Amino acid sequence: MASTAGPSRNHLLPMAKPIAPRDGVTVVIPAHNAVAQVEKMLPAWGVLLNNLNRPFQLIVVNDGSTDGTPAALEKLGPRVPHLRVLTHDTQRGFGACLRTALAETTQPLFLYAGIDNQYTPTDIRPMLERIELRDEVFGKQPDLISGARAGQLRPAFLKWLGGAWKLFWRVFAGLPMVESSPWYGWSEWWYRARAGWVFGVPLADVNSAFKLYRTAFLKRFPIQSDGDFVHAELVAKATFLTSIMDEIPLTPKTEPISPVTADCRTVFRDPKFAFDSAPKVNPQEAGAPPAGSPTPAS
Description:
Blueprint: E1 25-31, H1 35-50, E2 56-63, H2 69-76, E3 83-88, H3 94-102, E4 109-113, H4 124-131, E5 144-148, H5 156-173, H6 186-199, E6 210-214, H7 215-218, H8 230-240, E7 245-249, H9 265-269
Parallel strand pairs: 1-2, 1-4, 2-3, 5-7
Antiparallel strand pairs: 4-6, 5-6
């Protein structure tokens, strides 16, 4: 079942020991007009992945950049181990970048990371350890480990209101006073609330662009979102498919949280949880005569 608690808890206990050998990982980084971040982050990713003692790929999807990003990627190619660059002619969005990279991955684990300074490459280590644990009740390993950002300072009246609410339930129902979810601002709060109500997303930081999946799980269904709603879409589908998931805290950062522009209409109107078993084929491509053509005489 999908986890519903906050990021600081271990939702998968009890667990058996990690399984050997270690699975390889593909790290996917979408980049649009991010030359400074590319020059700073990619060498760090290369060093880290090279020291993990497991097979890896590093894929950067250049999402229609119009600045010096393409030149920076070309310059970094010989310096960063196993770096591969995929290019979109025009900007297509985070979800489209994941579709492009997923088609090229060769490793059983798939981590995607934002290129901005909100994320730290070394945070991949605890996520790789967590996804290799096996749930002793269901006998399954997680399909998803999501990183939760540290958040911002919660407004004073919300801190007071939340404390009073938890105290009420502690006194009258005996419920434990658990730690509040991280605070990412009103827009993120409203977005998370809607994602939870409509799509059943259980994570505290659904919009985190630092998530680790099993590649086989991602290839079970089409990624429908082109843009930032892909973060919620994938978790919603994992929830619907009763996947085991967990959320762990990321390294705290001082950089402001980037705004997210998400359009959920495509997924909301026609959610797809599997690929069509029989893809549509153009009759002419299959060798059938065009409609209205005379049938050969026998």
